[in-house]
Amino acid sequence: MANERTILAYIRTALTALATAASLIQFFESKVFRITGYILVPIGFILLAIGYYSFYKVRKQIKDIVVQK
């Protein structure tokens, strides 16, 4: 259960970063806001990738522990 909550937290954080990036790029004309938005896009995808990697890594460890018992 904790592993599932962790992946959901990563997904929520990644979606927040992507939504913030989209808002900054779309609705603000300041160069600083646009640059910040463009920086947040890859950060959102990196967070998503880290979350999935962590989820499957821990999932495999849990399966290995269950099989050994």
Keywords:
69 residues, mainly alpha, 2 helices
Report the biggest beta sheet as strand number plus sense, adding barrel if it closes.
Answer: none
Radius of gyration, in Å, reads 17 Å
- Decide which structural class fits the backbone: mainly alpha
Q: Tally of extended strands?
A: 0
Please state the average pLDDT score. Answer: 93
Determine the strand fraction and express it as a percent band. Answer: under 5%
Helix content: over 70%
Unreliable stretches, pLDDT < 50, 5 or more residues? none
**Shape designation:** rod-shaped
Summed up, the helix count is 2
Order of helices and strands: HH
Oligomer: single chain
Question: How far from one another are the termini?
Answer: 19 Å
Sum this structure up briefly.
With 69 residues, the protein is mostly helical. Helices cover 93% and strands 0% of the residues. The mean pLDDT is 93.
Topology:
Elements: H1 2-27, H2 31-68
Helix pairs in contact: 1-2
Account of the 3D structure:
By secondary structure, this protein is mainly α. Helices cover 93% and strands 0% of the residues. The chain has helices at residues 2-27, 31-68. α1 (2-27) runs antiparallel to α2. The chain is rod-shaped and about 60 Å long. The mean pLDDT is 93.
